[in-house]
Design brief:
8 helices; 2 domains; 241 residues; 12% strand; globular; 8 strands; single chain; alpha/beta; 51% helix; two-stranded antiparallel ribbon; Lambda Exonuclease, Chain A
Length: 241
């Protein structure tokens, strides 16, 4: 189960939780990851201590050229435009995200961790170094859904923004659990160095005031998921494939 799926499971109602569990068990990952070009560019940019924006400009130029090809498939064009949008949003909000002065580096490829019988995959985009061997981790969130800017009503926009923030706070707790599972090989885990940089909101979201309660909630949810997992059956749409 992915960290994103688990974080969303924790904030949804039962019918939404059922969909999360079903999709986590049966859905196949896409061959081409959404926003893949943008994510590769943004990771490389943040791993580089120079934070050279010309590298991002080069990627945007290549994506613009790809989208402009006359006989390009609509899906390919749309994906290129989405990636350009994601890079532009990051650059627009970079000051607000506050990542430029941080000591960021490339993370290793982490194995899944076991949380109360559930294998959870957590893949931070950067490691964050602090003094005295303190270590944190961060996730760049570029996914559009749920998109606050797609709403006309202020109340709907607020709800979607709060949904993203709640997910992010659980993801921060999962980042801490991931680092603690490394038994000190990367340094001393520091939850205050863990965050989600949400480029749609233009916010850097760190640990919640009730962080300890969220850690307990994650473990409780995973115990529940471990019990439910054998009972999850494929929906008709899956059986037709």
């Amino acid at each position: 189960m992915s960290a994103t799926a688990l974080a969303e499971y924790l904030i949804l109602q039962p019918d939404g939780q059922e969909t999360i569990l079903h999709d986590s068990r049966y859905s196949r990952p896409p061959i081409v990851t959404a926003n893949g070009d943008a994510m590769r560019a943004l990771r490389a940019y943040n791993w580089d201590p120079r934070r050279d924006t010309t590298a991002l400009d080069t990627v945007k130029k290549a994506l613009t050229d790809r989208a402009a090809v006359r006989d390009v498939k609509p899906k390919t064009r749309d994906e290129a435009l989405r990636c350009i949008e994601a890079i532009n949003l990051f650059l627009r909000h970079e000051n607000a995200l506050g990542m430029r002065p941080m000591a960021l580096s490339e993370p290793p490829r982490f194995d899944v961790i076991d949380i109360e019988g559930v294998a959870v995959s957590i893949h931070p985009d950067v490691l964050v170094s602090g003094g005295a061997r303190r270590i944190g981790a961060a996730i760049l969130r570029v996914a559009k859904a749920p998109d606050p800017d797609a709403c006309k009503l202020d109340e709907t926009k607020r709800r979607r923004g709060d949904h993203r923030r709640e997910m992010a706070r659980y993801m921060v707790a999962l980042l801490q659990m991931l680092l603690e599972a490394q038994d000190g090989s990367l340094g001393v885990p520091d939850r205050d160095l863990c965050f989600v940089a949400d480029i749609r909101l233009g916010e850097r979201i760190g640990p919640a005031p009730d962080h300890a309660i969220r850690l307990r909630a994650i473990r409780g949810a995973c115990r529940q998921i471990a019990n439910l997992w054998p009972t999850i059956t494929p929906r008709p749409s899956i059986l037709k494939k």
